Structures are given as C-alpha cells and as structure tokens.
Write a sequence for this structure.
C-alpha cells in the first residue's frame, strides 16, 4: 500500500478534521530546540483517547513511527516531527475533567497548560506545584512525559511527585489505566512513575490525575544576593540546603546570563556580579530575611536586596528567551546536568575552569537548590567549533555523573542528546531500559531512536 493510501485508511478511522496533511502540518513539526524537523506522513490532532487509540492501532498495524507532541516547548528535540512518521498532537485535548479540593487532586487532559491548571487550583486555595519557566504554554502531558522541574520544585518536588494516575494509550492502541485517586497505593508496580519522563517512548498520555497542594500563605519576600564568584554562590546554596528552612525558590544566574537578561529586558540585575542568587521566602518575618542576608554575606555576598514583588523572579524566567534572542540553538549548545546541591560548587568550578581553558563563553542559569544547571555553551557556526562545544557539554555531563548526578535534570534526552546515554547508563541499566521498551512497544514505533536510543524494528 502506498503512504497516501495508508493515510486515507487512517483518515477513515478518525472524526472529520482530526487529520492534517501537507502544509497544514507545519505548526506541529518543530519544537523549542535547535533541531531540524522532518516531514511527517500526517498529523493527528487528537480530541479524545479514542482518537489516539485509533491512530496508534493504525500505526502499529502498518509499522509507522509515531511522535507525540504537547505544546512543543521542549528543548531536546523530543517533539520534532520525523520523516515519514505520524505526529500525534495532544494540544487540543484541553478539558479539565474534575477538580476535587477535598482530596486535593485534579483530573485533566494532556493539552491543559501548566498555568491554567495552577490558576484553577488557585480558586480553591490550592496550587499545582511544578512550574517550569515555560508554564504559560507547556502542556501537562508534555511536562509529565519529560518529568519537568521548575522554580518551586525545590520545595514541592518535580512533576513525578505530583502525578498519581494516568490514562496511557499503548503502542498497539490498547488503553492502560495506571495508579489511583487515593493518596496511597502499593498494588503492583508503580506504572504511573514508569511513564513519567518516558518522553513518548512507552505510550501516549491522554489523561492525568495530578496532586494539588495548599497554596503557601504568609508574607512573601524575594531576595537577590550577588557574589564575586560562582563557587561562593554555590557554597551559599549548599549552606541554605543544610538548614531547616528551605526557601520556596532558590535560583542562580551567572554574569553572562544577567547581562543577556538586562540587554533583553532591563530588570535591575547586577551586571557585574559573577553570580546572583534569586530566592523566594514565604511565611517568614523580617528576622527570616535577615538570617538569609547573614548567611549570604557569610559566604561572601557583596550585596543583598529584598523586595515584596515578583520582579526578580520574572527576570529569572526571562533567561531562556534572552538566550534565544542571542542565538541560543544556533550559536549555543545547551546542557542540563544536575548534582546533589552539596556538589554544586564543584560542578560550577568545573564549568568555569573548562570555559576559561577553551576561552569560550558559557552562560549558566540554575535551579540552584535542586543542583540543576543549564549551561549554554557558545559556539560559532563553524562545524569544528560546534563539535568542540558539544564535547564540552559532554564533559560537563560526565562530571555531573561523577559527582553523583545526571546528564539531564529536567529537559530529557529527546532526539538531540542521545550521545549522553553512554555516560548516563551502565550496561545493565541500558539492558533493562531496552527490555522495558521491548515489552511495551515490541515493534519500536514510539519515538524510535529517541530518549533511550532504541531504534525501530522496521
Ligand atoms: C522558555 C522556556 C523555559 C523552560 N523552562 C523549563 C523549566 O524550568 N523546567 C523544565 O523542566 N523545562 C523547561 N523548559 C522545557 C519545556 O518547557 C519542558 O520540557 C516541557 O515539559 C515540555 O512540555 P511540552 O508540552 O511543550 O512538550 P513537547 O515539547 O511537545 O514534548 C516534549 C516531550 O514529551 C513528549 N510528549 C508530549 N506530550 C506527550 C503525551 N501526551 N504523551 C506522551 N508523550 C508526550 C514528546 O514526544 C516529547 O518527547 C523550558 C522551555 C522553554 C522554551
């Protein structure tokens, strides 16, 4: 059968208007990574679980690769369209099915944005805690598939900690329900967690039951502390994490990032400091802020400022758009390693030392309390130079693993970082990943080659 005959067959199984071909597919091919999109055979714009099930049953029958996509804000190329593959967009599955304030959970379709869910939770004085800096547009399905982190994940956990049940369409079109609505559940394996962070390689999430937490109350103070070097800032982070009072948010930006943000949108950041910590304290009083000031100054902060509005956090959230405006993705290689917070000084010292050795600009922004750094490594368009920048990204990832951490803290491997898998997994871990993949997707049609590096069988 020709591809157009196959696509015609798929069209017959879907409601009118749910299948796009040719030029209509273009809004569904790229993501926020620098990767180059392929040309899909078609795009299914799903509205129901049944649409996804029909599409996957068709793809499985005909050995067609499938790429799931949410909002396309991913930065590792996981949602990039692939040549000849079927893209399934979940972006229009935007129903908030239920909110149960008394049980503190919500049931949502995958296309609901993170901010929309948090806004609705807020009307019950609750909060959906995971808040990637892309929360205005990132989808619940995409953030579950990548196990997204965010600013306040320091105090409330990452996306995995907020997911209690999922509806997932498996590669052959069967519909799997994992987890429960109860707060506790130990029946069987934790299949819910298996799908969190699976980057579209094990199934397509079509509904999620997520936990809500009480919205923190009390006095809110944001603070910034500027340091003459990154290592001192990182030591201050480590000291904060040793203490009894964890700030709601604790982020780090380096001098390069602060200047990119100031050039992009003046925000009052210190352009001269080597590192600036930005934090949020909730529920304390003046003495809490003074304790934080003392701690920062003890670790060498050259200035400390407190504010009762969000302008410092807003400035931090502009880091990625500011980098993008300066050629992120064309002239930069992104790295997303994470380490235990006490090892952050060593990781940052390594980044500083290697960038100085190579005379290369590296812009660092970090979910510092979580030990998760985003280092954007500058490169020219010259192929060799780009390759050396990738080598540096690999060395940072290797160092993070040596320090007890990981090659990717929240952005995932996607299609662009599979070179890091050999650093992330030993042979046994790789084999177990491949066995799980083979059990759930024996034909290898879901995101072939991506996330865990298993190619399709076709
Ligand atoms: C400005 C900016 C700031 C960012 N800040 C953060 C941050 O602070 N923390 C963070 O973690 N990330 C951040 N990101 C990265 C990105 O927003 C996250 O990875 C997010 O989770 C992706 O969600 P999405 O809906 O856009 O997913 P997409 O980009 O569409 O897809 C991401 C991956 O999930 C898979 N997928 C999507 N939906 C489904 C589904 N329903 N079922 C199965 N698989 C699916 C895709 O196949 C792909 O592998 C940022 C990105 C930008 C552009």
């Amino acid at each position: 059968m020709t591809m157009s005959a196959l696509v015609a067959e798929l069209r017959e199984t879907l409601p009118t208007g749910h299948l796009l071909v040719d030029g209509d597919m273009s809004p569904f091919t790229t993501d926020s990574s620098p990767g180059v999109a392929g040309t899909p055979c078609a795009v299914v714009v799903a509205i129901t679980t049944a649409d996804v099930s029909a599409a996957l049953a068709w793809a499985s029958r005909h050995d067609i690769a499938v790429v799931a996509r949410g909002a396309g804000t991913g930065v590792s190329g996981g949602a990039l369209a692939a040549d000849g593959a079927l893209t399934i967009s979940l972006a229009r599955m935007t129903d908030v099915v239920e909110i149960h304030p008394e049980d503190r959970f919500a049931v949502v379709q995958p296309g609901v944005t993170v901010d929309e869910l948090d806004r609705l939770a807020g009307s019950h004085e609750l909060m959906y805690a995971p808040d990637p800096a892309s929360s205005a547009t990132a989808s619940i399905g995409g953030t579950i598939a990548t196990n997204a982190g965010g600013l306040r994940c320091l105090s409330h956990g990452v996306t995995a900690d907020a997911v209690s049940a999922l509806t997932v369409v498996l590669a052959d079109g069967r519909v799997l329900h994992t987890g429960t609505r109860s707060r506790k559940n130990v029946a069987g394996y934790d299949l819910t967690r298996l799908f969190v962070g699976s980057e579209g390689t094990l199934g397509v999430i079509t509904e999620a039951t997520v936990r809500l937490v009480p919205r923190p109350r009390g006095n809110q103070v944001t603070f910034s502390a500027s340091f003459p070097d990154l290592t001192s800032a990182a030591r201050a982070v480590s000291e904060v994490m040793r203490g009894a009072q964890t700030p709601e948010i604790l982020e780090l930006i380096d001098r390069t990032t602060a200047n990119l943000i100031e050039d992009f949108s003046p925000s009052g950041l210190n352009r001269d400091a080597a590192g600036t910590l930005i934090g949020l304290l909730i529920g304390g009083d003046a003495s809490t802020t003074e304790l934080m000031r003392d701690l920062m100054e003890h670790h060498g902060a050259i200035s400390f400022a407190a504010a009762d509005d969000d302008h410092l956090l807003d400035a931090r959230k502009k880091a990625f758009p500011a980098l993008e405006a300066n050629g992120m993705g064309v002239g930069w290689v992104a790295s997303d390693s994470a380490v235990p917070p006490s090892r952050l000084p060593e990781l940052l010292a390594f980044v500083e030392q290697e960038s100085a050795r190579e005379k290369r600009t590296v812009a660092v922004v970090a979910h510092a309390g979580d030990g998760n750094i985003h280092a954007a490594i500058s490169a020219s368009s010259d192929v060799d130079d780009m390759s050396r920048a990738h080598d540096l990204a690999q060395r940072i990832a290797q160092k993070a693993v040596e320090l007890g951490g990981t090659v990717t803290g929240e952005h995932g491997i996607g299609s662009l970082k599979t070179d890091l898998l050999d650093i992330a997994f030993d042979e046994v871990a790789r084999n177990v990943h491949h066995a799980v993949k083979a059990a759930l997707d024996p034909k290898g049609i879901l995101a072939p080659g991506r996330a865990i590096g298993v190619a399709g069988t076709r």
